[in-house]
Amino acid sequence: MTIPTRLDAQRLDREDPIAWLRDEFVIDDPDLIYLDGNSLGRLPRRTNEALDRFIRDEWGGDLVAGWTRWVDLPRSVGDLLARDFLGARDGEVVVADSTSVNLYRLASAALDARPDRRIVLTAAEEFPTDRYILEGLAAARGHEVRSPPDLGVRRSGADRVLRGSHDGRPAHLPARPRALALPPGR
Ligand SMILES: Cc1ncc(COP(=O)(O)O)c(C=O)c1O
Fold it and tell me: Residue 83: which domain range?
């Protein structure tokens, strides 16, 4: 196997049909190689401009009357994401609040829906604040949080495990139906 050189990488960059997209982002340090795209990606220049415009024109100009438009944005932006990026249908995606707030609400609803189920499963390597939320909800209900060593093995999809199904479970998972299971990478 030949090891690619810097010249090879530069040639690939020149031939890359979407290389122009680099200019769409704020890049203060050209020597920084930044690969964290799932969490806090690079700031798109257009986001900067859109936020400036929003603050100036909508908050500044419309004041509280802006709510008549803002109130529907979670659905209309969700529909755009659904159609253009996610392959989902209208009405299936809602953009609302932060990851933590949404997880709190989802997990609360799931635990309240089945109060007889008292075990919450989450992967040990899960994002720390996700775990704090689950621990807080479990403590308030007298439930137990467990982290079996290979919870991530069964990536059957959050939808199925959220319902607490226990078909096909690995042997080490609890025999009692569990209240909620969040596999990593959901
Ligand atoms: C898996 C996961 N959970 C929680 C968070 C925290 O999100 P929030 O901004 O809602 O606190 C992040 C942020 O990147 C995340 O990736």
Answer: 7-26+43-96
